[in-house]
Input
Amino acid sequence: METFEPNILAYCCKYCAYAAADLAGSMRMNYPGNIKIIQVPCTGRVDVLHLLKALEDGADGVYVAGCLEGECHFISGNLKVKKRVLQVKKILSQIGIEPERVEMFNLSSAMGPRFAEIAVEMTERIRKLGPSVVGLYQRRQAAVN
Ligand code: FES
Output
């Protein structure tokens, strides 16, 4: 049987998570290639619609990785997106999609190993959940066309 390899999108703040991803790379740390990183100037830029659209476009999971609480360069961007992630989790529950497909993490630029851990954690989590119904539908439609 074929193993399910999830598509996961990560919105990473350029000051912390994106730099941590770079550090993980420099440290030659292994993490799954399932993660597609989108660099954002601050996670406060990530909206509810960005998270929902990622799922609609076929991502099986999506997460936001921002600065540690109290260390956002734009003061409260990471706190604002934390609330949005919770809103999206609620919306997903209401429409019958597992809320665990969306998550928020906080880390510093020095936390390369933590970045790799998060990538592994999310990949394993989404593998257990299986393909998102939306992603599955998108893939079937693409195969038909
Ligand atoms: Fe990193 Fe705001 S600057 S989350």
